[in-house]
Amino acid sequence: xxxxxxxxxxxxxxxxxxxxxxxxxxxxxxxxxxxxxxxxxxxxxxxxxxxxxxxxxxxxxxxxxxxxxxxxxxxxxxxxxxxxxxxxxxxxxxxxxxxxxxxxxxxxxxxxxxxxxxxxxxxxxxxxxxxxxxxxxxxxxxxxxxxxxxxxxxxxxxxxxxxxxxxxxxxxxxxxxxxxxxxxxxxxxxxxxxxxxxxxxxxxxxxxxxxxxxxxxxxxxxxxxxxxxxxxxxxxxxxxxxxxxxxxxxxxxxxxxxxxx
Length: 261
Known about the structure:
Elements: E1 3-6, E2 15-20, H1 44-58, E3 65-66, E4 76-79, H2 81-85, H3 88-95, E5 100-103, E6 109-114, E7 118-124, E8 129-135, H4 137-141, H5 144-154, E9 163-166, E10 176-177, H6 179-187, H7 192-195, E11 196-198, E12 205-207, H8 209-219, E13 227-229, H9 244-247, E14 254-260
Parallel strand pairs: 3-6, 4-5, 9-13
Antiparallel strand pairs: 1-2, 2-14, 5-8, 6-14, 7-8, 7-9, 10-12, 11-12
Helix pairs in contact: 5-8
């Protein structure tokens, strides 16, 4: 399995962040080749095989590969020893409707699944706190970026030490939205001139989700120099990363994870 390594502004010893790539693609199958998400209509055995392959590649047990069932919420869950003590049904219930995870446990890979939305991996190396978040337009407007930073700080991190790496996501040119989406960002207090452009030919609005999340992170106390953004557009490069806008919602997802040895 080929992984796209995500770099932080300053390397953090013992911490690795990455996004999966699709690998060998069958254009007739929108789930090919590597999909770890189990609630988007893919064959369950193929998903399990992908998860097992990733776990073996990273050298962790399958139980240490943790991902939520995302719903474009702004909920943040902490993966701690209490969570680890729950049975599988209780763990699944705790991860339902969650779009960001925080942990200080070593050897646990936390991650989110995206197909155009912005995945973010976060770390405070000094505190040993890592996190991951999924930010679609709803989560971005709801400032999930700030909420995951707050979740990290509640565990002992400090905002001015946190570094952020954004994984592959849809670029502004590809992300056409309706005016109701623009209104949602306006009501949320975002500076629209910094994140919205109009297509001169169509008059349609295009939002820069990466810039919006960067602004939310800076407002939450993250140093601008500590934020690195992937330049891969999932829709432009849909044969390397999954794109719901290109492939439809019944397609695979790119997994973005982070773990601490």
